[in-house]
From TrEMBL:
UniProt name for this protein: Ferric uptake regulation protein
Needed co-factor(s): Zn(2+)
A GO molecular-function descriptor: transcription cis-regulatory region binding
Alphabetical list of Gene3D superfamilies matching this protein: 3.30.1490.190, Winged helix-like DNA-binding domain superfamily/Winged helix DNA-binding domain (1.10.10.10)
GO BP: negative regulation of DNA-templated transcription; regulation of secondary metabolite biosynthetic process
Localization terms from the record: Cytoplasm
Length: 156
């Protein structure tokens, strides 16, 4: 599905470039992607696009809060277009698949022991575990977990 990102870019005073639009479309189609995956998708649309152009656009879009950068420990940065809400991520330790999970409360959904005087408005949380497909393939119990989508295809 194609989404019109023109108004979004104009609202953030960003120029409408073919590479920028292709980056947004790639992220819309493939959330939680790394720069190389986004670059491959952009190159399918624009064969002359460079990896540096993709990185430049990822940085500009992140700074404008149009996309979000996710930094799971020990992994490359991932990007998504879902911003402005209070959601977190669940990462499978085995295959690396990522799912969004909504917070069960108001932002920030965690309360620190001390705010040190900060006006805290966001908490960044990454949950780690083993997805149902990986549990199934290793014989682990999946009864207490939920996983939506085509989990066998998503797991690497």
């Amino acid at each position: 599905m194609n989404v019109d990102f023109t108004h979004l870019l104009k609202d953030h005073n960003l120029s409408l470039t073919a590479v920028r639009l292709a980056v947004l479309q790639a992220l819309h189609d493939h959330p939680h992607s790394d720069a190389n995956t986004i670059f491959a998708a952009v190159q399918q649309r624009i064969p002359t696009a460079t990896l540096q152009a993709v990185y430049n656009n990822l940085n500009a879009l992140t700074e404008a809060a149009i996309i979000q950068e996710i930094k799971p420990k020990g992994r490359v940065s991932l990007y998504e277009t879902r911003v402005g809400d209070n959601h977190h991520h669940i990462v499978c330790r085995t295959c690396g698949h990522i799912e969004d999970t909504d917070c069960k409360g108001l932002a920030p959904c965690l309360s620190p022991a001390s705010t040190h005087g900060y006006a805290i408005d966001q908490a960044e949380v990454i949950f780690w575990g083993v997805c149902p497909s990986c549990q199934e393939s290793s014989g682990q119990n999946t009864a207490s977990n939920t996983h939506t989508g085509d989990n066998h295809e998503k797991c690497r």
